[in-house]
Amino acid sequence: GRRSAPVVLLPSTGPAQAAPFSPNTGSDSGLLPGETVVREGKAAILFPSANEVFYNPVQEFNRDLTCAVITEFARDVLAQRGVKVEVPGEREPVVVSLSGEQTGADEPMDEREETNGSEKQQLTETARVGEKCERGLRVLEGLAASGLRSVRFGLEVPGLRSVTANDFSAKAAALIARNAQHNGVGHLVEASCKDASLLMYEKREKRERFDVIDLDPYGSPSSFIDAAVQAVAEGGLLCVTCTDMAVMAGNSGETCYSKYGSVSIKAKFCHEMALRIILHSLDQRAGVYQRYIQPLLSVSVDFYIRVFVRVFTGQAKVKNSASKQALIYNCVGCGSFHLQRMGRRTSNGKQMKYSAATGPPVGPDCEHCGHRHQLGGPVWAEPIHDREFVQKVLTAVSVNPARFGTSRRIEGVLSMVTEELEDVPLYYTVDNLSSTIHCNTPPLLQFRSALLHAGHQVSLSHACKNAIKTDAPPKVLWDIMRCWEKTNPVKREKLSLTSPAFKILSTDPSLEACFTVREDANPQSRKKHLTRFQENPQAFWGPKARAKAGYGHTRAAKPPLWFCRRVRETKNVGNHCARLPDLQ
């Protein structure tokens, strides 16, 4: 069935935990034999105990971030409908920035929003969490599984009119209904048992569309995208998760093309490329129906990517789509890359002229190392975040950290997102530049300083720890590396004449790099030691096995293949066997 990634119930390192359940009545009569309860956020969710069902504690960050994003989306949209959003613990927030400045400490956020002049609609109604708002948002979780995410929406996101929690499995739908009732949100959360695509196709009429659609499937969301871009309301929010990172990161470019209409390639920037591939796919499918997307936030974390986009309708704006996509020429030798836009648009007074793009931007071989290029894409080449919106979410989370169990990590990731260069697609990594010419890796701050001294912009990326996003062309990067190699020399006699290192180091640099560390080379998120790249939260923390058809069916474990030959042949483990504890 089409449902969210069901996994073995594991102990979490975060706030989510298994615990005895106490429903609203204060008793445990609603707990069936063998069931257990997982608490995450404000929700307490029932799970059948003997089955690999529905819950991955590592995805708590995903769910927390989604609640935060939908809350700020609701705040913006409902203000236009005359509804004020009220979030517990947000009475007197302080608008924070990475520079350390604070504004509005004595004025509540909602009052500042009402008086800033940007919202002319008078706020006549207050929306609170757990309460139904008649002018609120209609939310669909297309692949709800246990309903954890939908229940958390009902308990933690204000301004909701209804939440439809859908799953193709009848048993999952029944579990969703039980969880909604046990958490006291039965008036908001409605269980549905339909094929997700068919459900969204049924809601294509303008009056029946959803304001928010959340898709978090097991693997690829490609089969749901066409229905989703039609069923989301005008200006509505589409939240999509992809966990098929092996496909999107270049291991199967042909499979990626069949699913997303884009060829993925193996490169150091593969995680940001994956974000741009799904955005390209969303925009391409929306364009079929004269709609287009506006990305609000796109993140690559753990073993998945997550994008939040708004969908609008406009025939004139859809014509810009071709110029927003680009092909990627990536050198297989040194890793230099160039982007080739698919179309070109030029302004002619009040009119916009569209024409075919000219290119390619590279020759037959790489000008730096002489190797060939591989072609990837097309991908989304426009900004993947709305910095103003991200700053709103960051502020709301920072001033109310008790709201989410992963607030520290959300603050760290969003802080990095606000620091990223908006108009610079993809990135290089310092360690890969160094390994290409076989020299020592320069310290990150010194390399960033060299780019700043050369007059270029530079930032880090949330998608990779050692990433460098810069508007400097590849020639400048290699000139800086040549200057670095002069003080950290490479044994040239050991280099192959056909290697990228030999070709690059055979050319003299055209600039004199300065590696003196500048104050602005160290970003604020790094200075403040925010949680930007956390360690693996637990053993075997990645995506788990697909769900089984029914509950409670288990199979006897087979001896692992990595046991010694004696164990595999005799099926007998003696007391002397070093693997005995592992087998037990």
TrEMBL record:
The record's listing under Pfam families reads: TRM
Q: Name one GO biological process term.
A: tRNA N2-guanine methylation
Keywords linked to the UniProt accession: Methyltransferase, RNA-binding, S-adenosyl-L-methionine, Transferase, tRNA processing, tRNA-binding
Span list, region Disordered:
1-32, 97-127
List where the protein spans the membrane: none
Q: What are this entry's molecular-function GO terms?
A: tRNA (guanine(26)-N2)-dimethyltransferase activity; tRNA binding
Domain of life of the organism in this record? Eukaryota
Q: Which reaction does it catalyse?
A: guanosine(26) in tRNA + 2 S-adenosyl-L-methionine = N(2)-dimethylguanosine(26) in tRNA + 2 S-adenosyl-L-homocysteine + 2 H(+)
Name the Enzyme Commission number(s) assigned to this protein. 2.1.1.216
Q: Name one GO cellular component term.
A: nucleus
InterPro entries given in the database record: SAM-dependent_MTases_sf, Trm1, tRNA_met_Trm1_C
Q: Which PANTHER family match?
A: N 2 ,N 2 -DIMETHYLGUANOSINE TRNA METHYLTRANSFERASE, TRNA (GUANINE(26)-N(2))-DIMETHYLTRANSFERASE
**Which family is it part of?**
Belongs to the class I-like SAM-binding methyltransferase superfamily. Trm1 family.
Spell out the NCBIfam families in the cross-references: TRM1
Name-wise, this protein is: tRNA (guanine(26)-N(2))-dimethyltransferase
According to its UniProt entry, this protein's organism is: Neogobius melanostomus
Recite the lineage of the species.
Eukaryota, Metazoa, Chordata, Craniata, Vertebrata
